Amino acid sequence: MWLALVIIGALIFAVALTVLRIGPINRTAGLLLLPYVACLVFASTLNLWAAVHN
Known about the structure:
This protein has 54 residues and is an all-alpha fold. The chain has helices at residues 2-22, 27-52. Helix 1 (2-22) packs antiparallel against helix 2 (27-52). The longest helix is centred in the last third of the chain and has 26 residues, at 27-52.
């Protein structure tokens, strides 16, 4: 479970970097990725809770 948390963290970093790079070019595309980042953060908190309590 800890490895999955690291992978989700890397994915959050990659998507956030994509938002920062695409945002100035196409604002709509950058804004549409924000719910995905929120979903990834939620998934990482669930994963962290499961890893700690398992």
